Each structure stands twice: as structure tokens, then as C-alpha cells.
Amino acid sequence: MRRFKAGIVQMDICSGDVKKNLAVAQRRIAALSDRGARLVLLPEMWSTGFSYDRLESLCATTPGVLEALLRLSEDRALTIIGSMPERQSGHIYNTAYIVDRGAVAARYSKVHLFSPTGEDRFFRAGAKAVMANTTLGPIGLMICYDLRFPELCRTVVLRGAHMVAVVAQWPQARIGHWDALLRARAVENLVFVFGANRCGRDGELVFGGHSRIVSPWGVVLARGRGRPESLLASIDITLVRDARRQIPCLKERVPEAYD
């Protein structure tokens, strides 16, 4: 699809309250759909929060939440992206799902775990980049701390991504980094970047919001502030082709010089 509307649900997350988080997400996804959105992003760990002491039991809720998203995406012809805790082979992963019109198009387990907050003590790191072909076009996936690693974004772009979805719980204390890195990833890779960040507070930690939709030219098409809100922007995928024709940096890479 060359042109469509993309939305972001910027929400606070009630730690461990899956029922409440799901209800908020469903209501706001439906509202964005009513406004014409075909793609909707949710934040990182949106259904559960980082409830480390309850991760084992909260993983058991993910299949049911995923089924609810599948029904919603099918009923409203939506592509929905967000991350949740997932148990695989005896380990827990922070996994982003692309739910595309009633089917799971891709799963991506977070590769870069944020060690300063101990995330690496509770989750197993993913092992590979993921780029998925969806009904809206090719989308690459990243989760929060991944944004600081340009290699991951470049990898999904070289595999064909025209859009990169970043879901996060990025703190207010470093929100300037978030703003700068979203634009940098868009400009250096000539892709649309969608950044869905949490807002609100968890104990002493304040989350910054500032969700963004950024064009391949680095233009911020929609910007959130620090409170719960929904963002919506019109996406024209032909801008990716046009930008790459005018600035052919992806074609003019010299990989042998970078070793």
C-alpha cells in the first residue's frame, strides 16, 4: 500500500494489570481506526509493564492478549505492533509482534537488553534482526535500547524495510536522546520511523512520551508530548523511493572500508 494513515497509542501502563492495559489499548486502537489508521503502534511491554517479580505468571497472559489483538486487527483491517513478555523454550523474551489483519506476520525478540536496569537478568536476548513483509509494506522491528545500535536498523533496511517500528519505555531523563536517535535512524537509512514510547510513572521512574512519526527526510510528521495521547499521520511510501534516488547513500556504501 503506497499511502495510508499510521497511528501511535502513547499510554501509561499499569504494572501487572493486563486487563486494564488491554482495555485501554483496545479502546484507543479502535478510535484511531475510526480516524482512518491502518497501522497502530503500542509501547514496549504495553500489556504488563516490567513487573520482574511476576514475569513468569504474566507470560501466561500473552497468548490471550495476542488473540484479542488478532481479532481486532482482522475486524478492522489493521496492522498492530507492540511488545509483550513471551516464554520460549524455558526462557522469557521481550518480544514485539506484528499482527497483520488477523495473522501474526512476525515476532522479534529484543536483541539489546538494557543492563543498567537489570533487564538482562530477567530476559533472554534475541539473536536476530527481523524484517517482515506486511499488507502495508516491509517493516523492520526494534525495541527501546535497540535504537542506540545503528547496525540493527541498517540491517533491517538492507533487507528491504521501508518503515522501522520502534516500541519503547524510554525515560524522561534521556528523552532528548530518544528524539535525536529517531530522526537519525530515519535520515541515515531513508526510511519512515515510528517511535511509540510510554508516558507516566513507575515508582520513581518517569517515562518521557515524545512518541514520533518521522519521514525519510527527518521531518517529524506527528509528535507526542508527555501525557497519554494518540498520534496520527499520513504516510506516503513513495517518499522512500524518492529520497533514496536523490540521496543514494545506501547504494554508495563501501562495506570493505568499514571492517
Low-confidence stretches: none
Summed up, the helix count is: 7
**Order of neighbouring strands in the sheet with most strands:** 5-4-3-2-1-14
CA radius of gyration is: 17 Å
Give the overall silhouette: globular
Q: In the residues, how many domains can be counted?
A: 1
What's the mean pLDDT score? 97
| β-strand number | 14
SSE class: alpha/beta
- Indicate the percent of residues in helices: 25-40%
Distance between the termini: 37 Å
What is the correct CATH architecture? 4-Layer Sandwich
**Full CATH superfamily name:** Carbon-nitrogen hydrolase
Strand content: 25-35%
Main sheet specs? 6 strands, mixed
Helix/strand order, N-terminal first: EHEHHEEEHEEHEHEEEEEEH
The CATH topology name reads Nitrilase/N-carbamoyl-D-aminoacid amidohydrolase
CATH class: Alpha Beta
